[in-house]
Known about the structure:
CATH architecture: Orthogonal Bundle
Largest sheet: none
Structural class: mainly alpha
Mean pLDDT: 96
Number of strands: 0
Oligomer: single chain
CATH class: Mainly Alpha
Number of domains: 1
Strand content: under 5%
CATH superfamily: Hypothetical protein af1432
Helix content: 55-70%
Low-confidence stretches: none
Distance between the termini: 56 Å
Amino acid sequence: MEILNQSEEYVTKLLTENLPKGCLFHNLRHTFEVYKSAKEIGKNSGLSKDQLNILLIAALFHDTGITQNYNFHEEKSVEICEKFLKQNNFSSNEIDHISKIIMVTKTPHNPETMLEKIICDADISHIGKRGYFFKLKLLRKEWEIMLYKQFSDTEWYSLNINFLNENYFFTEYAKITFEKGKESNLKKLEAMLKKTRAE
């Protein structure tokens, strides 16, 4: 679909040129990892081609708002996406649908439709993958730079243990594919917290 290619080009240019340098986790790589995970989950969840395209446009735009406002980036992402889609002659119904999918990535997640469930799963799929702890380091540094938040190791491990305990996968495919990795990462985090508290 041509619009998907145009969306990729637009988002790539936008994030490359306008993303704050402190965005070490929420960056172009993260966007395309979410895009890839959304595609994988979507294809394995029986989506039609049209549904998949709508999902993937939402995935591409879901963090674009960080270029304008870090704390309220979902709302800004919707504004950026809506403007782009209007210029490409999308109907108001399609735009509203995509906007709703983007907004559901705001935590805490409360998805209702299958597409909303898939984007939520894709957005946190890294918690169930190898490389999770590297991404955690990037996020910690990003929050130091962007939010001026400093954490002790104990605080950081506790915060992320809570995040993993409070966030779960909604689709059957994500549960089967990422849940085991999530549990493994959670156990490692708990061991790291225990070790830190013992020191």
